[in-house]
Write a structure and sequence with these properties.
mainly beta; 3-stranded antiparallel sheet
């Protein structure tokens, strides 16, 4: 019998604590190369969103489309200047991979 997941709480980028409908708790571990969460600038773990895209500007006021709700931020220029058209940046704070969690 498959039990439904009642709640999910991220522990690390590739681990989550789940509570099942019978009240039991499990720790689900995914491969490190398959994270389900990203860490925002305040250190909070949030679900990865591949669709989210926001309008932003570079430091020299050129318009870009920014996808930052992932493990790697992706910036794409929208103006006519094609120099450095695409930018990728890891979104991992130092030590974020080694975050300790409570496994109750």
């Amino acid at each position: 019998m498959m039990l439904k997941v009642i709640s999910r709480t991220p522990v690390k980028r590739s681990q989550e604590r789940v509570v099942l409908e019978d009240g039991s708790k499990r720790l689900l571990c995914y491969a490190p190369h398959n994270p389900h969460y990203y860490q925002n600038p305040s250190g909070e773990l949030l679900p990865i969103d591949l669709v989210h895209e926001e309008n932003s500007f570079t430091s020299d006021n050129k318009p870009i489309k920014l996808k930052k709700k992932n493990v790697v931020s992706l910036g794409r220029k929208t103006g006519s200047d094609k120099k450095k058209y695409l930018g990728l940046r890891p979104r991992c704070k130092a030590g974020a991979i080694f975050n300790r969690g409570n496994y109750d």
